[in-house]
C-alpha cells in the first residue's frame, strides 16, 4: 500500500481520464488497499490518500467514470450488533420527533450492487461473534445532476464485473427509514437477519 501511494506522483503525466479508471480498478482488487483506505477515512486519517481521492473526483467531473442512475441497489454486509441497535434506536427517536428516520453519513467509500443475489452472497461470506448479517435496500428518490453525483458504476471497470458494483464516494448521506428482523432456526445460518431500507438524500 505504501509503495502504491508513493508511486502516485510518478503517474502525474497520465491523463486524468485514464488514471481515474485505473484507480477504480485498483480499488476493486481483492487486496488490503480498499480496506485500509476505508478504515483510514472512517478514523479521519485521510492525508495519505488525498491525491488518490482527488483523481477519482476529477474523473467524475470529466465524466471518465460512468455514472449510475439505478433506482434500487443492494448492500449485504456484517455489522456489529451494537451498531445495528444504535441505528434502530436513532430511527425510532427520529420518528418520535417527526423525522422520517435516522441520518446515515458515510465517511468512507461504500459499495452497493445492482444484483440482490450478489449482496446476499457478500452477506453470507463471513461470520463473526457479536455481528449480524444485514441486507440494505437503497432507493434513490431524487434526481441527481451528473456533475454533483458521486454514485459511480464501476462494474465495467472492475476486476469482478459480475458483481455489478456501484461505488458511493465519501460524504454520501442516506436516511435509514425502515427495518425488520427475521430469525432462523437452521444451524447453517445466522440466528438473525436484519433488512434495512435506506433512502438516498444527497451525494
Describe the structure in your own words.
The protein has 203 residues and is an alpha+beta fold. It is 32% helix and 28% strand. The chain is built from six helices and eight strands. The longest helix has 16 residues. It is globular and about 55 Å long. About 4% of the residues have low confidence.
Secondary-structure blueprint of this entry?
Layout: H1 2-7, H2 16-27, H3 33-42, H4 50-61, E1 72-80, H5 81-96, E2 102-105, E3 110-113, H6 116-123, E4 131-140, E5 151-153, E6 165-168, E7 173-183, E8 192-202
Parallel strand pairs: 4-8
Antiparallel strand pairs: 1-4, 2-7, 3-6, 5-6, 7-8
Helix pairs in contact: 2-4
Q: Quick recap of the structure?
A:
The chain is built from 6 helices and 8 strands.
Tell me the overall shape. globular
Low-confidence stretches: 184-191
> What structural class do you assign from the helix and strand content?
alpha+beta
Q: Report the portion of residues in β strands.
A: 25-35%
User: What is the subunit organization of this protein?
Assistant: single chain
Mean pLDDT: 80
Strands, total number? 8
Q: Calculate Rg over CA atoms.
A: 18 Å
> Number of helical segments?
6
Strands of the widest sheet, in order across it, are 1-4-8-7-2
Distance between the termini: 27 Å
**Major sheet details:** 5 strands, mixed
Amino acid at each position: 500500500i505504501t509503495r502504491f501511494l508513493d508511486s502516485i506522483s510518478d503517474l502525474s503525466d497520465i491523463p486524468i481520464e485514464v488514471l481515474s479508471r485505473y484507480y477504480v480498478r485498483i480499488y476493486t482488487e481483492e487486496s488490503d488497499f480498499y480496506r485500509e483506505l476505508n478504515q483510514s477515512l472512517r478514523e479521519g486519517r485521510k492525508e495519505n490518500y488525498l491525491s488518490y481521492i482527488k483523481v477519482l473526483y476529477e474523473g467524475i467531473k470529466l465524466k471518465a467514470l460512468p455514472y449510475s442512475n439505478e433506482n434500487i441497489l443492494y448492500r449485504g454486509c456484517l455489522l456489529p450488533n451494537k451498531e445495528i441497535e444504535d441505528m434502530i434506536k436513532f430511527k425510532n427517536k427520529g420518528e418520535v420527533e417527526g423525522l422520517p428516520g435516522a441520518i446515515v453519513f458515510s465517511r468512507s467509500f461504500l459499495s452497493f450492487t445492482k444484483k440482490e443475489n450478489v449482496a446476499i452472497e457478500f452477506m453470507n461470506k463471513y461470520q463473526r461473534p457479536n455481528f449480524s448479517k444485514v441486507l440494505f435496500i437503497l432507493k434513490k428518490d431524487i434526481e441527481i445532476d451528473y456533475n454533483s453525483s458521486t454514485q459511480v458504476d464501476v462494474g465495467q471497470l472492475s476486476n469482478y464485473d459480475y458483481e455489478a458494483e456501484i461505488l458511493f464516494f465519501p460524504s454520501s448521506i442516506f436516511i435509514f427509514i425502515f427495518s425488520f428482523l427475521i430469525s432462523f432456526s437452521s444451524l447453517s445460518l445466522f440466528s438473525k437477519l436484519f433488512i434495512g431500507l435506506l433512502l438516498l438524500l444527497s451525494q
